Task: inverse folding
């Protein structure tokens, strides 16, 4: 499994900690900022989103100060369903119900906790329930018919 990870300056520390853990079990491609110097998170979110839509990676991980800004930017890329999560319940629901393909985290998470969220995210399948499939398909159809 190939994972992509991105971050802004505020997410750099957590990214470095996660890379150490993730690289033991996964192929990980780093699309993020290389340090703590102030950068614009949308540029890094777009890189990750494009990598996912180009099938360079299977899932994405995005980190910024709150996890919110980078999730908004990721979601501007056609085909991306990014979710900012803070709990295992959030992770399971967004994968099961929404088929999210990028997990967005905040900089203040403990690396072990964040790693647990990520592994749950990538191992939780999308639902086979018709209502969830229908809703995700509605999102996909909207993207096709309403170019941004």
Result:
């Amino acid at each position: 499994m190939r994972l992509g990870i991105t971050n802004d300056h505020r997410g750099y520390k957590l990214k470095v900690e996660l890379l150490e853990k993730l690289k033991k079990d996964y192929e990980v491609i780093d699309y993020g900022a290389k340090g703590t110097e102030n950068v614009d998170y949308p540029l890094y979110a777009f890189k990750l989103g494009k990598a996912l839509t180009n099938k360079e990676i299977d899932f994405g991980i995005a980190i910024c100060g709150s996890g919110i800004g980078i999730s908004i930017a990721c979601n501007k890329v056609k085909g991306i369903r990014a979710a900012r999560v803070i709990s295992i319940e959030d992770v399971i629901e967004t994968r099961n119900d929404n088929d999210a393909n990028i997990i967005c985290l905040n900089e203040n998470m403990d690396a072990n906790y964040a790693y647990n969220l990520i592994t749950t995210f990538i191992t939780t399948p999308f639902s086979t329930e018709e209502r969830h499939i229908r809703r995700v398909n509605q999102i996909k159809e909207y993207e096709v018919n309403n170019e941004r």
